[in-house]
Amino acid sequence: MYRSVYKNSSDEFTERKSRFIGHAFFVTSEEEAQERINEIKEKYNDATHNCSAYIIGEDKLIQRFHDNGEPSGTAGIPILEVLKKEDLTNVCVVVTRYFGGIMLGAGGLIRAYTKGCKIALDASVIVEMTEFDKISASFAYESYGAIENYLRNEGYKILDTSYTDKVSVQVYKSLDSDILIKDLNNLTSGNIEIEKLERVKLPCKDNKILY
Fold first, then answer.
1. For residues 201 and 129, is the Cβ–Cβ distance under 8 A?
2. Is the pLDDT assigned to residue 177 strictly greater than 80?
3. Whole-model pTM?
């Protein structure tokens, strides 16, 4: 499990006539992070600066930042420090600045780029990327109503349903919980076939999967 952002998003504010736009992206490789940075640089090619930082990998071993012309230590590092403080990875943030004619000073720049990163993360929503097993459960038709009601009442989303000689549904099961398997067996008196299809990492907020 690791913490990251749920969606690519942006937000902005103005500080002493300078416009700051924070952009946050979910990325899984350094190449993807560089692509996102280049996209922002191209989109905002008339901006004064496009400063960035990213952390890649569940071990967080890849950490990079760039001041893009701002005084050393006033832009890229503050962005990176926010990512580290939030314990995030697989995330890239770019903060765009349109200079408004008033100098902010080193302290002002650090505060502005820190804020630019924070508002981008807030807009993106911080989540916990959690492992789940995608399972298929096959059972007799007479059990379908009870199982469907159970899954919906317990907050499970039915991903797919197929109808052959039996009914088969696909849902995600948390790795640390066998309650689902136990309850499905109880509802069918053990007349059920459960198969693990794959293991995936999904974004969760407040212990709920964000689909």
1. yes
2. no
3. 0.86
